[in-house]
Amino acid sequence: IDMFDTNTSPIAIPYLALSAIVPAFLVSVLIIMESHLTGVLVNKPCHRLVKGCTPNWDTFLMGVILLVCSLFGLPWLCADSVRTMTHIKTLTVYSKHPAPGEKPRVLYIHEQRVSIVLVHILVGLFLLFPKIIQS
Hints:
Layout: H1 12-19, H2 21-42, H3 54-72, H4 81-90, E1 92-94, E2 106-109, H5 114-128, H6 130-134
Antiparallel strand pairs: 1-2
Helix pairs in contact: 2-3, 2-4
């Protein structure tokens, strides 16, 4: 049913909006669960990360951004678990000389947001200049 078709019954338009509530709710739950799963993977005890109140703040902001994106028809966020875990692995500092047969242990992880911001800036620049990608 085309909502903008002048021949569409006025009764069908609210029905379309109401029928979208259940799938939208399920997708919202899926996105927030993915975000929590990524948080659980990142905050494993072996990573020795210090977490404060940010997980709760992240969940709140994710919900607000999800609501705003939904209202304006913008694309939703995703946690991107694979990229996040790869980022954690690259910032991990292991012990230099473990005993023979012993695995290197995690000394610490450089906690920073600079590389993530730079990746997003570069992606945005490539979207602005598509001729660079094509050549």
